[in-house]
């Protein structure tokens, strides 16, 4: 295996931030995700590229109260608290010139993470591109949601559709514009959500598109127009992957990308040299088999940081 260190922007070092909560999810267990990723060797996998890896440990926040939804939201006060704490931690690492990796936790944490990245981009005058790898569009609102679980709402909240205390976390509403985000691997969207995603004009490369056009074409479009002034953020929900290779998630959806398709996504991102922050979310070790989903996630992250089979010609 060989790597090309020029393929990422982590010269200032990489910071791991564990966020052990499943407060936004329907099933318990994602709170154990950060530890599973550590056990699978995430720090060592990144350090092999000669990068300084700092494990910031786990953030702390309220326990999961296990309550039903109130006005369309489950656990809103707890979700707000976790996301505010995460926003502050991510923003501090970005401000220090480091590449933060958020180890989730469920995907409601994308609100705190990406609002911090968006704030950093406003500070530095950078363009933002978010690649959202997920089986779900995560664009539910209180009126649309079947469950009230906020891990189904982060993209809506980031685009300004959500409770005031969540949409304001980064200090700017909306935190991101719909044109900043590309969704890849989508194959489960609730009825009301379909209309909203369409109306907002979010660019979605769903599984049918990937089946018809190929993953390479989808990724070329998702990465189009990225330049040296672009901050590239990857939000990787492990349910993006087909459950036959990644069983350790609470919301499996059949028909996801294969191992090779997922690797290609990561390799093409590495080739841009623009990766500047990362979320790894929805890993649920309670549903996994011998930590294989965490090990697969770490394998993909290695590719994201530039692992390749052969020396590539520049």
UniProtKB/TrEMBL annotation:
Binds 2 manganese ions per subunit. The keyword Metal-binding applies. It catalyses: L-arginine + H2O = urea + L-ornithine. It comes from the Bacteria. SUPFAM superfamilies: Arginase/deacetylase. GO terms for cellular component: cytoplasm. GO terms for molecular function: arginase activity; manganese ion binding. Its cofactor is Mn(2+). Its EC number is 3.5.3.1. Pathway: Nitrogen metabolism; urea cycle; L-ornithine and urea from L-arginine: step 1/1. Mn(2+) binds at residues 107, 134, 136, 138, 237, 239. The keyword Lipid biosynthesis does not apply. Pfam families: Arginase (PF00491). GO terms for biological process: arginine metabolic process; urea cycle. Keywords: Arginine metabolism, Hydrolase, Manganese, Metal-binding. InterPro entries: Arginase, Ureohydrolase, Ureohydrolase_dom_sf, Ureohydrolase_Mn_BS. This is Arginase.
């Amino acid at each position: 295996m060989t790597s090309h260190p020029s393929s990422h922007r982590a010269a200032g070092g990489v910071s791991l931030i564990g966020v052990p909560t499943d407060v936004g999810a329907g099933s318990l267990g994602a709170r154990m995700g950060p530890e599973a990723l550590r056990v699978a060797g995430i720090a060592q996998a990144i350090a092999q590229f000669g990068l300084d890896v700092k494990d910031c440990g786990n953030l702390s926040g309220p326990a999961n109260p296990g309550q039903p939804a109130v006005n369309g939201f489950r656990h809103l006060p707890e979700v707000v608290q976790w996301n505010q704490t995460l926003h502050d931690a991510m923003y501090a690492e970005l401000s220090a010139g480091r590449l933060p990796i958020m180890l989730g936790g469920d995907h409601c944490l994308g609100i705190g993470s990406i609002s911090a990245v968006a704030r950093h981009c406003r500070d530095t005058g950078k363009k933002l591109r978010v690649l959202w790898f997920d089986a779900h569009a995560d664009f539910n609102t209180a009126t649309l949601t079947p469950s009230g679980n906020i891990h189904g709402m982060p993209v809506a909240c980031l685009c300004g559709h959500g409770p005031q205390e969540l949409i304001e976390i980064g200090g700017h509403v909306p935190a991101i514009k719909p044109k900043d985000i590309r969704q890849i691997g989508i194959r489960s969207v609730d009825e009301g959500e379909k209309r909203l995603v369409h109306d907002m004009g979010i660019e979605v490369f769903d599984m049918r598109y990937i089946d018809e056009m190929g993953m390479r074409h989808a990724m070329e479009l998702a990465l189009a127009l990225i330049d040296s002034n672009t901050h590239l953020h990857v939000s990787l929900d492990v349910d993006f992957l087909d459950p036959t290779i990644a069983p350790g998630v609470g919301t499996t959806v059949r028909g996801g990308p294969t191992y090779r398709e997922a690797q290609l996504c990561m390799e093409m991102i590495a080739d841009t040299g623009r990766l500047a922050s990362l979320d790894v979310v929805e890993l649920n070790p309670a549903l996994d088999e011998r930590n294989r989903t965490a090990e697969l996630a770490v394998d993909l992250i290695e590719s994201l940081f530039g692992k390749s089979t052969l020396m590539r010609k520049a």
